[in-house]
Amino acid sequence: MTSATLPDFPWDSLAGAGQTARAHPGGLVDLSVGTPVDPVPEAVRNALASVSDIPGYPATHGTPELRAAVVEALRRRHGVVGLVPDAVLPTIGSKELVAWLPRLLGVGANDTVVIPELAYPTYEVGALLAGAGVLRADSLFALGPQRPRLLWLNSPSNPTGRVLGVEHLRKVVSWARERGTIVVSDECYLTLGWDAEPVSILHPDVCGDRMDGLLAVHSLSKSANLASYRAGFVTGDPRLIAELLAVRKHAGMIVPRPVQEAMTVALADDAALATQRERYARRRLVLTKALQDNGFRIDHSEAGLYLWATRDETDWQTVNWLAERGILVAPGTFYGPSGSQHVRVALTATDERVAAAAERLA
Ligand SMILES: Cc1ncc(COP(=O)(O)O)c(C=O)c1O
């Protein structure tokens, strides 16, 4: 059975703490999962509805308008130049792509996939689904003479909020090019820089004027509140994208046409993006102060959707301490062994729930 080759689904182990937190008289403040709670922008909902009467199959490659909107948004928002619309491929949210990318690219049993020390669990799942080996490493030094087939980056990071600087990214790109390693940069939190400016792997300061061997994975779940729509895309090296497109066409991995329309509008709406950023910025300040004033230290967290917090005790002790106060967070070990003294606190709760959490911590 394939599922037997995969790790236990981590969230199941949080059920006990969830029960404790839900019993709080003031109700649960759920800061465990990074699931958006704010409205879907009206223009996006209208776009979805406007093409609800198209009976035919959509294109796996997406509409030309969607691909053009991606190229424009990456140029405007992140300074990515030289991207061709053909090298854009919509995905059904980014989790499915993360889980299947190694398999789709033909990574197999004799290959190694490198993932960050502390990482979104699906990178490991994707390597295991391809039958490949997994190595956790943040430094190229740790990899020695190895030639991994694929290396994941995630800046800003889930769970730590750490941002990788231009110099670091350049080093990874040149190291990977020498070895023929594909670098895949998960950039789903790229629009959420607070104390640092996140940079795309496809920015000319990082990759020059060549995108060969590089892929950037994006999601509209957090930037446009579209988690329920399942809306993402992958872009970068035109040859790798053509290969992914060829396989995904066979496999029926197609973004529904109404979602393609919604994505096109969301990618053009920088005002909605700014509004959402402000909401998260406010909640981040409230939660940061409440945690810091009450015995927590916050590490990294200069960008992204989470606070990486510690009380210098085990992650589960902190999870349970917060659960007693009706606040549910994720233990650091969900993301890797080195998370054993941290918890991940999501900024994705309403202003009212965030205020309730701050009050209970005081
Ligand atoms: C680092 C990272 N990558 C990818 C995803 C997947 O997001 P989605 O499938 O909603 O696009 C998440 C979701 O939380 C994430 O944290």
Automatic annotation (TrEMBL):
This is Aminotransferase. The keyword Transferase applies. The keyword Transferase applies. Its cofactor is pyridoxal 5'-phosphate. It comes from Amycolatopsis taiwanensis. GO terms for biological process: antibiotic biosynthetic process. Residues 28-361 form the Aminotransferase class I/classII large domain. InterPro entries: Aminotransferase_I/II_large, LL-DAP_aminotransferase, OxyQ, PyrdxlP-dep_Trfase, PyrdxlP-dep_Trfase_major, PyrdxlP-dep_Trfase_small. One of its GO terms (molecular function) is transaminase activity. Keywords: Aminotransferase, Antibiotic biosynthesis, Transferase.
